[in-house]
Every structure is written in structure tokens, then in C-alpha cells.
Amino acid sequence: MRNDYSDGMSLAWIDGHLDLAYIAMQCGDIRREPTENEDRCVSLPALRRGNVGVIAATIFVEKGADAAMNLWGYKDEHDWAGANRAAELQMSFYETLENEGLVRIIRTSEDLAIESQTRLLILMEGADPIRDADDVARWHRRGVRMCGLTWALGSRFAGGNKTGAGLTSAGRDVVAAFDSFGILHDASHLSDAAFDDLVGATTRPIVASHSNSRTLMGSNQRHIRDDQVREITRRRGVVGLNLYGKFLAVDRPSTLNDALDHVQHIATLSQCDDICALGSDLDGGFGPSSIPKGLRGPEHYGAVTNGLMSRGWSALACSKFASKNWLRVWNTALSERR
Asked: Is the pTM of this model over 0.90?
């Protein structure tokens, strides 16, 4: 990644949430540009054009009877075998990209520092592929370095933003196992009760990889509360801006200014420039038309920092948003295994 800075467009970028394997399964081969028939904007070439050198690449497996008919799906929270199968397929996809020399999977802080390749930090979005606390070691060996206990619909370990409920007993055990391996906690998609339980179950940093402000969006638990932002700030985590239009504005098409409003609100709450980052979730179950105009692809991320500069943000603050805040959190977590 380049470290120069010119008018917001040549920044080095980290995207803290992209469903690369899921996109490849559902929408087309991310090794190449999308065709006219593929409703996506994410590809390895587009990421390179956008100077996005590091990505939190998800293992996302979807729960439900209909979802179970797809490569990325499993039946329910009791279907560990199905969830594990789907997750193994996605992890194998990332390993194939690495074997082809297209990416490097980040396992250590040394991997994170190598700038000659696109680097992937593996984020498990929903922990049902993990059998139990003892199984955490297996997924750590495979490369998982960040994990959210659940997706929206809940898991064996925690309530999701659509289901309510807190951490289960098994969830508390898995949290302790994550801590022992230095796996970073991702709070996006946790229910309010599960977030509050997580805060009580660990003293380590917490991030929200792709969450916007609930104050600007209403009562939906998918969005992050102001007090949760303050707790993440206290723990030196980050909050990643989600670019999905329906998570930026209510009952109208979203704009770049809406995205800037979310970043500004979270920065004001945290009273620093160390918390805000990017977790775009581009193509994560929605196409480019669902993203604000001017942001419909990784090569357009500079529009956000240009907008922040127009609101008085410094070059240093913009570089923190673009990459340095994620680098700080990940370097700390990668060196923390006890």
C-alpha cells in the first residue's frame, strides 16, 4: 500500500468487512472484473485500483432452511456439520487465492506488515461453524483472527440483532477461548443484550466491523448505540462505516453526506480520531445500486475522506480512518495470544 496523501485519493486503505468468499459463490469470480450480468462491484482488480491493501475477509454462512440449499448455508443453530461444511468451503477459497499468489492470509503481525500483496485478515461472521470452546483452536490454526458470535438470526452462542437474547453459557466459554488465542471480538450483529453480556465477559478490545449509528437510524438493534460507541472507545476498538444505503438513511435514498454524518457522529461521541474506520460490506447481499452514488466500488473510497476533509478533518485523521485505526487494533490483537 502507498503511504502518500494527496487530496484524499491516494490514501492506503483497509476495508474492515468484505464477504469475498460469499460474493464469489453468489455473484461471480472476484479474481476478475464483474460482467454486465453480475450484480457486484467488488473484485481483486477493483480493490487494487482503490489502493485497498488489507481486507477483513469474512467467513459468512447463512442460517435457514432455504439458505441450507446453497453452498453458503446451513439449517439452524443445531446444524454444526452444515455450518462447518459451508465455512470450510469459504476458508478453502481464501487458501486457494493464497496458493495462487493473489493474496496473503494474515496470521501474524509480520504478515500484516508485508505490503507487496493484498492481505486478508479472516473474520468469521457468526460462530456456528465453531463446535465449542475447544474447537476455537482449530479455527485459529486455519487463520481466523476476528469473530462475531452471531449473524442477525442468532447462534448457539449469542442472540442476534433480529432475535434478542444475550450470551449463552457456551458463548461465554467461546469468548474466553477467543481471549486465550487473541481472536478479536466483533460486535456487529449482536443483540443489545449480547453486546452487554460480551462487555461483562471480556476485558479485551471490541470492534463493530460494519455498524452505523442508531441515533441517526432509529431503534433497530442492527445499528450501534451511543453508549456502545463509548464502550468501544474505552477499549480502544474501532467502528467500521457500513456503506449499505438502507443503513445510512431512513425512508429515502442515501447520499455521501449521510455516510459522513455517521462517521462524524461516532467521532464526536468518541472525542477522538482513533475509533472511526471503514467496514464497507460492499456486495454483502446487495448490489451496487444499493450504495450511495459516488461510492459504488472500492476505487471510490477516497470520496469519503475528501468529504471528511471538507468538514475540517486533518490529513492525519483521514489516514487513521482509511487504515491506521484498523492497523492499530489488529497489531495489538495479533501480538496478544497468551
From this structure: yes
